[in-house]
Design a protein that fits this description.
With 321 residues, this protein is an alpha/beta fold. Helix 1 runs parallel beside helix 10. The strands form 2 sheets. Strands 2-1-3-10-4-11 form a 6-stranded mixed sheet, sandwiched between helices. It has a 5-stranded mixed sheet with strand order 7-6-8-5-9, sandwiched between helices. 45% of the residues lie in helices and 19% in strands.
Length: 321
Amino acid sequence: MIKTFAALAALALSAWLQGAAAQDYPAREIRAICNYAAGSGADLIVRFYSDQLSRLAGKPVIVENKPGAQGMVANEFVAKSRPDGLTILITPVSSTVNLARSLFRQLSYDPQKDFAAVTTLATVSFTLAVDAKKPIHSIQELVAHLKAQPRQGFYGATSNAGVISGELFKSMAGLDTTYVPYKANPNALADLLAGQLDFIAFDSTWTLAQQRNGFVRILAVTTARRSGALPEVPTMQEAGFKDYDMTPWWGVLAPAGTPRPVIDKLAGWFNQITNSEEGRQFLARSAFDPFPGTPESAARLLNADFERWARYAKMAKIEPQ
């Protein structure tokens, strides 16, 4: 009886402490970690949500860019941060977390155990794009161009999803084009315009802006359906690549062990942002489709996608480094 009472008292105290922590949350500024460099498409969405979150939370939300190792630098930082809800990861979860084990043989954190899912935010298509000055107007013309190049040319990407997009294209087209890794989007764009790359594989948020500026021509989107922001651009399936479907999703993660009341509070705020008129307009302008969720739905998708993205990596013949 005494042991049972003590256990119940401990549980009640823990619940009370967690509730009190959530009531006072956030006691100070929140750090929103971005896997990619400032100015990238990823950076744009992290900064939008962080600015909106600061208004709802009543505390500053500071964006910290931690690019490197295909997003793993930021992942490791958050996974090892204090689980108090004051350090969060706003990220393309499917490509930075689900794909981690397929890219690296050894990780300093466990992508399945070291994060707590907060919510989903949006889905986004990736694109294959070329220099707008080049006479390449379709994926089939790009294939012919690459096959005519020494070593079948070069392509650039800065993210896991970009690599998957490019490698799936190579595999299905029977190409041996060389992948060139970049840490920052502007560097890849500079090399594309200088003729050192034949195409780039980037998120539509960023390439849409570059197309509007006259720098690139988007040849196809990676999703099974056309993007609402790029209705005139065909999908890879429409371009002749059957079963090509690469649709990354964005979400929010916190370190494992973050109190559930804090997770719920964050999820409510983020869904409020996604469902707001300002949020929907931002997502539409940035070539995103809204995808709000719950901690439970985000956790289910996170767990289910480990197998799917491992399959993508296998299809693209990506060997872990």
